[in-house]
Amino acid sequence: MTSTTTYEPDDTALLIVDPYNDFMSKGGKYYERTKETAEAVGFYDNMRKLIPVVREAPIQIIIVPHHRWRETDYKGWNHVNPSQLHANQAQGFAAGTWGGEFNPEFGPRDGDLVVLEQAPYVPAGVSCRITVLPPPGTQRGHEC
């Protein structure tokens, strides 16, 4: 027996995670690392098909960006673990750089919600509140 699940557009969203140039654009710091897998599964072609259909539905699109590197990220930290050290050296998605900008094809458009970036590598046990910026023309965002 085949089961089909349907979802109402008002109760559904497409989350687009890290649509930064460093990931999704040729010349980005992480593009070559992801290219083989992205091509193997047709990621970019599928995103080019999916996003317009979702917008037409209309289903809410939520952009979920990773923290953009800043020079002050680890200033004053007494204990920086190896992955944090690497992130600091790599300067991925650096604020104020091309790599830290949203990819023009897959980044936010009018009406999309954008989650605010959180502090880098929040320690285990620390609760984070996720804040979503309000879409243009509205008064409030969302917190979860």
What do these coordinates show?
The protein is of the alpha/beta class and 144 residues long. The chain has four helices and five strands, in the order E-H-H-H-E-H-E-E-E. A five-stranded mixed β-sheet has the order 1-2-3-4-5. Strand 2, helix 4 and strand 3 form a beta-alpha-beta unit. The longest helix is centred in the middle third of the chain and has 14 residues.
Characterize this entry briefly.
This protein has 144 residues and is α/β, with parallel strands linked by helices. The chain contains four helices and five strands, in the order E-H-H-H-E-H-E-E-E.
What kind of sheet is the major sheet? Answer: 5 strands, mixed
User: What is the total domain count?
Assistant: 1
Model regions low in confidence, pLDDT < 50 over at least 5 residues? 139-144
Question: CATH superfamily, please?
Answer: Isochorismatase-like
Bin the helical content.
25-40%
